[in-house]
């Protein structure tokens, strides 16, 4: 990952996402997923622009099968906004940065 995104896994998801303060944007992705790679830079920029307000967490579904199964992830990229341990909204598919930003801003 980078300084503006956080890698999470099955074992630390509860702590780093559900237990986080503030809004967390979770990206369920995989290395082989073209659309996931397309939105990666936009998520990185959102992490930078909203630092201190939003945490961008990425979880690789191939390396961490338990969490996507628990949340019913059937297609990637799946993006979830989590606040206070609860999923407040979900989007499936690659979206342009402008739509991602509007989605995040609507939840702040």
UniProtKB/TrEMBL annotation:
Residue ranges of domain Thioredoxin in the record: 1-108
PROSITE patterns, per the entry: THIOREDOXIN_1, THIOREDOXIN_2
InterPro entries hit by this protein: Thioredoxin (IPR005746), Thioredoxin-like_sf (IPR036249), Thioredoxin_CS (IPR017937), Thioredoxin_domain (IPR013766)
Organism domain of life: Bacteria
Record keyword Transport present: yes
One Pfam family here: Thioredoxin
Keywords tagged on the record: Disulfide bond, Electron transport, Redox-active center, Transport
Keyword presence, Transmembrane: no
NCBIfam families, per database record: PRK09381.1, thioredoxin
Protein family (similarity comment): Belongs to the thioredoxin family.
Protein name: Thioredoxin
